[in-house]
Amino acid sequence: MTPSTDASSGFDAPIRLLGETASTNRDALDWASDGAPHGAAVAADYQTSGRGRLGRSWASAAGVNLLVSVVLRPDHMSVAMSEIPFAAALAAAESLEEQASGLQVALKWPNDLIANGGKLGGILVESVTRGGERVAVAGIGLNLNQTSFPTSLADRATSVLLETGQRVDRDDALRGVLDRLHGWTTGSRSDLMQAYRRRLIGLGRTVSVRMSDSGRSVSGRFEGVNDDGGAVLEIGGERRIFHAGEITFAAGGERA
């Protein structure tokens, strides 16, 4: 991607394309605080301090993947702020499948993108309040053309190129993600959750949920996701709902 400030997307909003930055989410949050319009995006070839969910870092090789953060204002959306992660995950999954024939992307609650058990990408949604308005930033990281990963990630991460042998044009992937994100955030909330559920993996299996607030984990049978996006687990004959955290699978499950 060529550095520019003049690109536009399906949101009809500016895109800042950077060669290198500390964090596209941090840049987008700062831009949102300065009044960035709905749909404004920051994309970069490389992040020196990329961040993932639950306080983790996000590692990505330079110039081969998609790293983008999008400013989303609630008065321009039909979905709730809590549903943005699901909309972003669906937008990313659909864009990747369009770019690479034969690729099938599943979703692991809440918003990891999975192909053949390996993690293709993830979503980090953060927010900032400006003038009494809460503004969200959806950070999307997708492994497109990376061919190797650090040892700590090698058994869990994958890329479109590794899965399909096909290289993805990053500009095309960016346009696809933004167009679909615009569609999912302005469409039917019911359709959004139905489409999200169709891609979920792990249904009916024993999983552990690590709760993001306490770090404590509980295990149970994964029954699905309710209309508010909460993970539903059957634990000791009772149904419990978790709105934040991370699912992991029992031994022999997906690598992610």
What is the CA-atom radius of gyration, in angstroms?
Answer: 17 Å
> Can you identify the CATH superfamily of the largest domain?
Bira Bifunctional Protein, Domain 2
- Provide the residue-averaged pLDDT: 89
Low-confidence stretches: 3-8
Give the CA-based shape: globular
Strand content: 25-35%
The tally of domains stands at 2
User: What pattern of helices and strands is seen along the backbone?
Assistant: EEHEEHEEEEHHHEEEEE
CATH topology (fold) name of the largest domain: BirA Bifunctional Protein, domain 2
Describe the structure.
The protein is an alpha+beta fold and 256 residues long. The chain folds into 2 domains: 4-199, Bira Bifunctional Protein, Domain 2 (BirA Bifunctional Protein, domain 2, 2-Layer Sandwich), CATH 3.30.930; 206-249, SH3 type barrels, CATH 2.30.30. 23% of the residues lie in helices and 33% in strands. It has 5 helices and 13 strands. It has helices at residues 24-33, 84-99, 160-164, 170-186, 189-199; strands at residues 4-8, 14-21, 41-47, 66-72, 106-108, 112-115, 118-130, 133-142, 206-210, 217-225, 231-235, 238-242, 246-249. The chain is globular.
